[in-house]
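Thread: "does anyone have the structure for this chain?"

Original post by V.I.:
We have the sequence but no experimental structure in hand. Need at least a predicted one for the grant figures.
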Amino acid sequence: MTTTLITGATRGLGKETARQLVAAGHTVWIGARDLDTGRSVAAEVGARAVQLDVTDDESVTAAFAQLDAAGGIDVLVNNAGIGKVALNGPEALEVFDTNAVSVVRTTEAALPLLRRSSAPIVVNISSALGSFAANHDQEKPASQYQAIVYGASKAAVSMLTVQYARAVPEVHFVAVEPGYTATEFGGVPNPHGRPVEVSAATVAAAASAGADGPTGVFLEDGQPLGW
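Reply from O.Q.:
Generated one for you, tokens below.
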């Protein structure tokens, strides 16, 4: 049985990924800043909940101690993130802390648990908006969209994926562009984009790749995306 933790999983992409992984046979932990909300969502999708604020070191430490006591994890999905225009120092720091620095916090806390797994995987939710290749390809939607701070934070997520894959070869690290999706990302309902079920399936596939899956790659719908 594969045990998976998904950060920021009380709604949108994270919640649907949790639902799909439960259906695929994973034991899923939903990381939630508010534990009551996490428990409610976990009950809905057949998962478990743990209090986890990825911007809070003490919260991260306590969450992984709980997961360790419960038997550990095999897969970490770094899904938590925020989107803001953030063209000022405080908001830019908030975006980088939530989207990129949090990947370091959770990954470092998870590594002792992951190293005990026979098929450990870290899936980092990145974005084509952080891809230099996509931003310079006029055929790609990312090249037509301005996302100054958000895009830079996701470029950092992708580089963290590359560096961790090199530094920790016993764990597979994969960055995923989930696609433009109709969710409430940023707290605002978005009726555009493709169904969340489609995007979540790409994340669930990366989380289910097992010991034979790729590492150090950036994937969009299962295919390589240029860095």
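V.I.: this helps a lot. The mean pLDDT is 95.
O.Q.: and The longest strand covers residues 27-32.
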